[in-house]
Every structure is written in structure tokens, then in C-alpha cells.
Write a structure and sequence with these properties.
With about 70 residues, the protein is of the alpha+beta class. It has helices at about 15-25, 70-74; strands at about 1-10, 35-45, 45-55, 60-65. It has a four-stranded mixed β-sheet. Helix 1 (about 15-25) links the parallel strand 1 (about 1-10) and strand 2.
Length: about 70
């Protein structure tokens, strides 16, 4: 899987990147190796949000989670 990880109002550290790839990597058996995964990490005051989008042929899989801590959101 190919990951595109971006941050809004947050710097994407190697630790955050590793946590995202570890969690989403569990889905690799369901997708082809060339599947693109778009991850957006954003922070607004005390709200820390992660959005994951996986475009597929004919469909889009999307998930979103918000909490007080980024690692909990992941």
C-alpha cells in the first residue's frame, strides 16, 4: 500500500507516521499492493482528528475519528 500522510496545523513526526502505517497496515491483506491510502491528520484547539480515504475502483472507503489525543484517534 502507498501512503500519503499530510498534516494540518501539525507536523507529521516519524512516530505518528509509524503509528498510522502500523494500524492501517493490518488492512494490507484486503487490498492490492498498489492501493493508495490518503491520511490527513489535523489539530483544532483540543480536537485532534484523523481522516483516512482509500479510493478504489468504483468506490471510496473513508473513515474519520476525533479525540483529545492524536494516538488515540489513530
Amino acid at each position: 500500500m502507498r501512503y500519503t500522510i499530510t498534516g494540518r496545523n501539525i507536523e507529521v513526526t516519524p512516530g505518528l507516521k509509524a503509528a498510522v502505517e502500523d494500524k492501517i497496515g493490518k488492512l494490507e491483506r484486503y487490498f492490492t499492493p498498489d492501493t493508495e491510502v490518503i491520511v490527513t491528520l489535523s489539530v483544532q484547539r483540543e480536537r485532534q482528528k484523523i481522516e483516512v480515504t482509500i479510493p478504489m475502483k468504483g468506490n471510496i472507503i473513508r473513515a474519520e475519528e476525533t479525540s483529545n489525543e492524536m494516538y488515540v484517534s489513530i
